[in-house]
Fold these 4 entries.
Entry 1:
Amino acid sequence: MNKTKHWLVPDWPAPANIHAATTLRTGGVSQGPYSSLNPAAHVNDDTEWVRHNRRIIRDMLSLPAEPVWLDQVHSNRVVKAVNPPFAKGGSGDLQQADASYTHQSGVVCAVMTADCLPVLICSWRGLLAGVMSNTVSTMQIPPNRPPCNKEARGDLLVWLGPAIGPDCFEVGSEVRDAFLEKSTEFSNAFKEQGKGKWLADIYQLARIELAALGIANVYGGTSCTFTEHERFYSYRRDTQTGRMATLIWRE
């Protein structure tokens, strides 16, 4: 993973015209629990600070357009990102979805997280609901062809952005049981802690799901948002906090 002062760049063999980054929590103007580069308008941060932070992100990453922000709801809904963004006004105008895709140059797909896994976006709820499989199935590679089949998926590259690490993500037995109902392969991603609690490896859960989809080129998955408090926001650690933005676009 390539690191700069205020953002991360995926360490993956993507084509030269593909750009991606995850913002860190540093380099912005927000104060208190949102300090400082919070782009999320839905977490009760000051609206002007959020707008300023979004301008900072756009400038420091030299984005070709305003990112297409989503109203993320831990679902498996996938939408096509287009310019201008879905929102015409405030955050209430955002389209509800947890993943987006585009074939157009100059369109910036974006998700916001603070422990959840940006793949584009994948919390454990999204993983369980099938947000990654829906995204892969919806994509057409190249455009105007049938939805991405398993043979074409072998050419896909995936980067797992910063999420809560495997030593910090404690869940109840009901979460593990729900995954095992979907596939027993997921059992390797859980470590028993006793009293009905398990440690879940969200990166491993994603890799298992991606392998089932025929995708082997998976990168990233080494950070922990919970323990790296100076770099990342974490909802589990702080509850009242900001979000990182993970963005991808093509020239």
Entry 2:
Amino acid sequence: MLLICRYAVPETGIEDFLSQARTAMRLLGAQPGCRGVQLTRTVEQDPDGVDWTLIARFDSVVAYRRALSPFDVREHVVPFLSRAEVGGSAVHEVLVESVPGEESPREQESLLARDRGSVRLGEVAGPDVPRR
């Protein structure tokens, strides 16, 4: 599972942004189920500022949600994540992955149940239709 958050940071705000990003990365990276956190920067200059992307990899959706639960994470990480640009979901699942040395890309089982669109709030007890 991937968390992908994009940020447009003006040149004057980079030091503050990096300080907050380092704290968020340290706290997220210390959580069980977190496989790693990266902060990337575009190499193409945007006239409005520098484009940054925070990428965190988790074992599962459950691990991601639990990683956001501790108090220090809610105090420091959640406000930082809320500064990200809005334009769609930031939480993604990996379905196909190319691994060096392997001939064909690996397909991953979806984390979502096939009947996910048919269950309404208050009705969920578990998927009626198992994952693939």
Entry 3:
Amino acid sequence: MQKRKDFIWKMGGQQGEGIESCGEIMATILAKEGYSLYSQRLFASRIKGGHTTFALRVALEQIMSIGEGVDFLLSLDQETVDMHGSEVRDGGYIICDSKVNPDFSKFEGTKINCLSLPISETAMKQGSLLMRNIVALGMSVALLGFDTKMFKDAITEKFAKKSQEIIDKNLAAFDDGHSLVMEKLGDVEIDTLPAPGKKDQMFLLGNEACALGAIAAGSRFMASYPITPASEVMEYMIKTMDKLGSTVVQTEDEIAACMTAMGGVYAGVRGFTCTSGPGLSLMAESLSMASMAELPMVVIDVQRSGPSTGMATKVEQSDIDAACYNAHGDYSGIVISPTSIEECFYEIQKAFNLAEMYQCPVIFMPDLQQGLNKQSVPSFDLNRVPINRGKMMKESDLPELVQPNYFKRFELTEDGISPRTIPGMKNGLFLSTGLEHNEEGKPAEAPTMHVAQTDKRFRKLETVADNYEPFLNNAKYDEADVLVVGMASSRGAIEEAVAEFDQEGVKVNHLQLRLIKPFPAKQLQPFFDAAKKVVIVEHNKTGQLANLFKINMHKKHKISSCLKYDGNPFTKSYVKNAIKEVL
């Protein structure tokens, strides 16, 4: 029997039918067994009803994207067959609930195997349609050739707080589903995935990784307002607050959230807030104040499709301009983006460090594909990113103040970064407002002071790219046919496309950008110069990332865009076709 390297399983139906929980059970078990996983939920912006799918890519080696095509499609309705049947690869399987009298006519004469099986009827044998997802799980395990014991153990654990009767009925539903497929297949052999051996890994959302990273960075204060697709960050912080002694404040809106987080930062804690595009717009004035007051706060912006409410459950990378330019005046701040779910953990820690090192707001920008989907990652190293609080002064080191003098919190230093004290420190008293100020924080409107303080706020950011790795470097050629640059979740699709070009003898370099503002032009220019063409891959209509390249880079005539803004993630083929157009 042939051993495959990966497969993609997808289940679809209506929201509220247990589709996600079915996928979660399967994914949790396979992650424990050492498989590399990447999951994707597609769902409508409503609580119940509307088409939804849960896709799971399972592989033997690390994967960074959901991939393309489907090997096993399990459908609870005809809509799933109609919408996703075309994704099924030759030799793949479609199973649909016989209750809906599925129409498989368009697959006649193809190499796709279509099975109409009594999912609902089998669930009702155990007394409830709610067990359809467990029946479907049994069917999936049969198709994929996995051992049933570990899944049955997981079902028992999942319903451990229920009665034994409920546990037994769910186990029976699983067995019935498994038997239906085994009987239908008979002696047919299906390519299976060999066991990889257990690994020390985690399977989690990017949002959960962000929350864990904030905790590892020493943050114990969060103020936020719930918003899709960012709410899981706050939810995770709430779950852990009692154990860690943290404080989480759910405010009345995003303005209050940003200002409350700023208050925590002013008091000396590592405070942060979390939002998405609409909330980021509301935070604009507060961020400008944080820039003026040089408050080191972190804002997580999990990007979604816009403008306005847009498509709240679909991916986009269209907040780049807002993150860079939304705050009024000569706003000085930092914008960074993680290149993977794993980096959501490590880079958010660096965001807290950068905020305190440069005493300014840092906007941390994953996208929805990272935030709301899960990936298996190596267990996190809690010591990889040491905490750096910048020029935070100790009370014992402060010289005695003579009234009416205040501490020079905004001292005009050579590097633009001033010593920092926090309220309550003896001899550390200063004023902090949104007004232009002198070195002690006292309001000042003298032209020379405004120029000096403005220059200071920008001068301090000149070394950010020297103290932070501005991009993931996958460039292997001294001279390349094409340089591809992406951000956030596009990494996996780009890496897979580049790997195929390598096999075809086409020299394609790849950089995945982390530092967006201040733009790392000096660090990028050598790679830019070494390529004949440059393709910028991003999820928006207007080429916001490409525009930053055009503003900051020489030889901008090389630049082309690969844009996708339909709410779906990039695929290898989509990226590859865009690169082919410039070859």
Entry 4:
Amino acid sequence: MPDFRLCRLLGLLGALWLAGCAGPAVEQQAEEPETNPALAAEYARRAMSAWEQGDRGAAVEAWRQAVALNPEDPVAVNNLALALKEQNRFAEAADLLEQGVTRSPRVAELHYNLAVISELYLLELDKALTHYRVYQDLAGEENAEVDGWIADLERRLQ
């Protein structure tokens, strides 16, 4: 015959365990990833080397590390986005460029590449027109080819 005290103890422990499981959830705050511009520059250098050697996968991963360690670096953001574009990962490239434009709104190349990907691959013509115009303003010099693309988009969007 089971010991009544042991059964009661086990029952109380079980109830306490269940009460603990049903308690309020503990909120965990999302931690900001640590930035390390020096290490990011090393990853960017490795990425460029891998790219030049034809190892596209290693280049993308190294640029991802560089961007994670220094999301403020528009060159790393731009290079990663162009590598993703080459892998036909257009939406991912555009999202990355959008983040880059948010962090570095005065970098013309980010706007240009976002406009090209938006127009040619994602067919987001309004977004493309917006970013071509910003590119022209930031570039500081007239570009007849981009002027033509802007005029074409304006006609197509009427």
